[in-house]
Specification:
single chain; Alpha-Beta Plaits; 2 helices; 48% strand
Amino acid sequence: MAPSASYSITVRLEVASRGRAVSEITRAVEQAGGVVTALDVTAGGNAPLRVDVTCAAGDTAHAEAIAAA
């Protein structure tokens, strides 16, 4: 089933503040078959980045697999 806005999820992550953190997150979503539709990044100097990732999935099971990725 193709990703659809009907199965849109938002996952909040905290990741180490480094140059490739966001690209690694989007790559993981894409490799799981999801489509990133929005990113909200809050930087805190040396603190971890807080990243809210909104993405489209094909169904509930697919959304769970994306969140686990």
